Amino acid sequence: MAIVEVRDLRKEFGGTAAVDGINLVTEEGEYLVLLGPSGCGKTTLLRLLAGLERPTGGDVVIGGEVVTDLPPRARKIAMVFQSYALYPHKTVRKNIVFPLAAAHVPKSEWAAKVEWAAGILGIQRLLDRRPRELSGGERQRVALARAMVREPQVFLFDEPLSNLDAKLRTSARDELKEFQRRVGITTVYVTHDQVEAMGLGDRIAVLNAGQIQQIGTPEEIYSNPATTFVATFVGAPPMNIIRTDGKLVGFRPENLLPLEAVGSRDDQLVCDFEISRVENLGSDRYVYGSIPALDPEAKVIAKLPSTLTVVARPDTREKYAVELDKLRYFDPDTGERVAPDQRTRTP
Ligand code: ATP
Questions:
Q1: What is the pTM of this model?
Q2: Per-residue pLDDT averaged across 311-331, rounded?
Q3: CB of 225 closer than 6 angstroms to any ligand 1 atom
């Protein structure tokens, strides 16, 4: 277990910064998720931590030691990639042993280490099979076991679940979380999937264009996004953002509800919601429309739980309400969060 820290970390490719001055400190044993859209620099940051890229500037510190100039094998990290890169002709046992052999760990220690890792991951019965005889989830566990045997201080994961189908992803996600909880090894996990990030992370660092937009618990990121980028990247459907009264005002779709259902109170913003389309997804209904009195241009979504039986029909105008303390305000120029402003109380 170790704390991972990066200081003013920068990586340029041909004069363009892929990682643009990042500062970050994990906690010991923390599961930190790097979340962001394609091309935002997640993989580059992970590769800098691993020592697979040399930074243009700044430092990487692992377990209190500056490792910027150390090669990957001297960093006590284990990396699991999107493609597990198991050797197809080797048995599971030989795949797991491989990094021990490469690191010249005495042969007498191999069996015990394989048993230990296979035991934690529940793959003892698979040790004599070859990768092609395993399911996607089992291959993932083998890749994890192979990463574990060197007893790393830090795990680095680069979208390790992206090759799995939707159902397997969910169970593999549970397994990964449970596994990390048990071994307690500091983990940095890259994904562009916000559901995965919310489910796995103790904290999430949201990246955009090589910079950290916000770092916080899933709850903080979801409820109090620092920027409009975070507000709209995290959450499905994303936070509604309307431009009114010189400000950007955001509210989550689940917080926009029919007045008829929530009842009239004085701590809410009430508006006429012009409904254009309704999607019934079983557990929820998504109601699409706009709020012409506040911002006729902005598309707005209300998410109604199935327990709410209020009628919602296209081409109608209904009174909807948002509690005032669910409104978030952003600067229209910078997109950054600003303090609440009660002037929007009257639409
Ligand atoms: P994805 O989710 O698509 O994998 P990412 O967030 O991991 O994206 P990176 O792979 O870190 O993004 O890439 C960040 C930026 O750096 C991109 O614009 C990419 O084109 C560029 N980049 C990455 N590696 C190199 C390289 N070896 N040479 C030149 N440019 C690179």
A1: 0.88
A2: 96
A3: no
Say what the pLDDT of residue 117 is.
87
What is the reported pLDDT for 141? 84
Query: Residue ranges per domain, the chain?
Result: 4-223, 240-338
Ligand 1 atom at minimal distance to the Cα of residue 40: 6
Asked whether 44 lines ligand 1 (CB < 6 A), one says yes
pLDDT of residue 148: 83
Mutate to test the pocket of ligand 1, among 9, 43, 193 (most ligand atoms within 8 A of CB): 43
- What confidence tier does 232 reach under pLDDT thresholds 50, 70, 90? very high
The CATH architecture annotation of domain 240-338 reads: Beta Barrel (2.40)
- Statement: 4-223 belongs to CATH 1.10.10.10: no
DSSP state of 108: G
| Secondary structure (H, E, C), 121-188 | HCCHHHCCCCHHHCCHHHHHHHHHHHHHCCCCCEEEEECCCCCCCHHHHHHHHHHHHHHHHHHCCEEE
